[in-house]
Structures are given as C-alpha cells and as structure tokens.
Amino acid sequence: MTEHALVAERAPRLPAHDHPADRPDATRTGGLTVRGLRKTLGGRDVVAGIDLDVAKGELVSLLGPSGCGKTTTLRMVAGFLAADAGTVTMGDRDVTALGPERRPSAMVFQNYALWPHMTVTQNVAFPLRTRRVPKQRVAERVRDALELVGLAHHAGSRPTAISGGEQQRVALARAIVQEPDVLLLDEPLSNLDAKLRVSVRDEIRRIQQRLGITTVIVTHDQDEALSISDRIAVMHDGRIEQIAAPTELYARPATGFVASFIGSTSVVSGRFLAATGVVTRPGDTVLVRPEQVALADGVPLRATVVRVLVRGHFAEVVLAADGAELRAYVTGVPPVVGTETGVRIGDVLVHRDGVLVEAAR
User: Which of 189, 287, 318, 320 is the most buried (most CB within 10 A)?
Assistant: First the structure.
C-alpha cells in the first residue's frame, strides 16, 4: 500500500476552505468531546471542570504555562490517568471507564518512549504485534507509516543511531500505524533545538492534515500553537480561559491573561493613554500590541528611545514617556538609544475586570 493509498483509506482530504471547526455538526461525527473533566492532586484542582469539543479532523492545541493542567488533561483523555469527574467521548463512544489500550487513540510522549534495543521498524510495529495483527499486515502498515514520515531509509536503524528529530518522527509513526481516531501529542517538540522544532512541527501538521486525524497537542510554545492549530485552548489554573482560532485569539484575547500570554503587549498609561482618546473607567487595563505602535515624525506625542532589542529582521524598540513604557516593532535601521521620536498608537485592547470590553480597530 502506497502513502497515497494509506491517506485515502484513513480519510478523504478536506477542501482547503472546509476547516473542521467550521462544520457545526462536526463534534457529533467522530471527534473528541470532554465534559466536566476534573482532577484534584495534593488538595488542588489541577484540572477544574474542563469542557472541550474537537471536531473530526481538527487540530486543537492546549496552550499554557507550566502547571496549568494541560498535560494532566491530555493524560486523562488518553486514559493514563483516571479523572475524578467528567466524561471523555471519542466519536459516539463514551471511553471514560476504558484504559488507554482500549481507547481509539494513540499518544506521542514528550520523551518519545522508544525501545533502544529495537530497530525503527520494530518500535513502530510494537503496538500492532501486541494486538496480534497478522505479520503481513504489520509489515504493510509499518512500511506505509515510515514512508509517510520520511523514515523508510532508517527502517533498520536503532533509535540511538538517528537524530532527535528523526526519533520524534519514529514516535509519530508508531502512533499513526495504529490508525487511531484521536491522536494525542504531549509537548512533542520540547526536546528539539529551535530550528529543528520549526521543520518538525510543519511535518506534524502536514501529516495530520493528510490523514485527517482528530488531534490534540499540548504545548507551552505560543509560536508552535499559532502556526499549526485550527484552534487553540489557552489554559490557566486548571481552566480553559479561551478557545478560538489563532487569528481570533490574537486579535481579541478574551481575558487579560490571554492577552499577556499570546504575543507581546504593553500597558498603555500616562501620556500614552491620553493620546489614544480611549475613555476608560477606574480599574480598566488598556493594552497595545507592538505592531500597533509606530515611530512617526510630525505628531504631538513624543517619547525617548530607552532600549533597542535586535530580533533579526526587525528590532523591538522600548519607548518611555513620564515613566510609562511602550514597545514598538521597527524594520530597517532602528533608532539610537537616547533619541526622541514621535509616537503614533493604533488599535488598543481594553479589559474591564479582566474581561475584554473593547478592541479598537
């Protein structure tokens, strides 16, 4: 069976405009549904009653800082950790009481969990052999999975003889070969260097889209989540603060925490706030993204350049006025520290009691 045959057997390719999250009935036709999922450890609600719908064929990232409950959530979905309350449904089947081996899901662990004494082929074949799949069928499925992840040439190698990125793809092939309905990945790129993370994350997305597998990935890296997800669920203190498409999440962060965690923001105050013309109430927080702050001549608002941080093809410039600071992204030659410049502020975000009430356009 060729790679294309494997793809056709697993799921039809979706039209480019037909994203799973856009189909209102998708969660009722083979995705993942979580209701009221809760886990208490050490007297603390690590996961505090999560509801989550992942459409069939959709990739959703659980994003948040360390200790927010994202990995605990994934382990309960996979069945490796029993939930204190709540239900997990895969497709139309309630799998809450089932162990991981009986759920129609496969998990890629953070450390890959490869057997060092086995070859790549033997590692990928291991879950099929434990299920007593016929040898010929095992050979076909392993070959197709290795071709799909681009590792057919390493079929006879051992994990210790290949790179970290290749080991990650072996772990992905071992999950894919099981033909799961739901693919679960726990920070699969955290052990890779920055450049390799970019190429491997793109490969994960390519394979996920080709096979149409419902996928949940845990990460603390916002760039990773923004680049590969259909939707992102931002977690904080055991709860989902907001779940939305990457563009919506960035443009309209529902809470102050989401705004501070996704992308970069500056608190607008003092002379900067007065220049925006925004009418606020006591306790309101006004935030602005660096790309909405421009250095401009001939404008009344003036600020001093206090720091310049080179980021590669652009510079992050820190501006100060009367003790308040803003950050701006500048391309080309950055200004010199200590010089004065005009500042123009574009769209801002206003949060009242921690909740978004205005997103100026």
Answer: 189
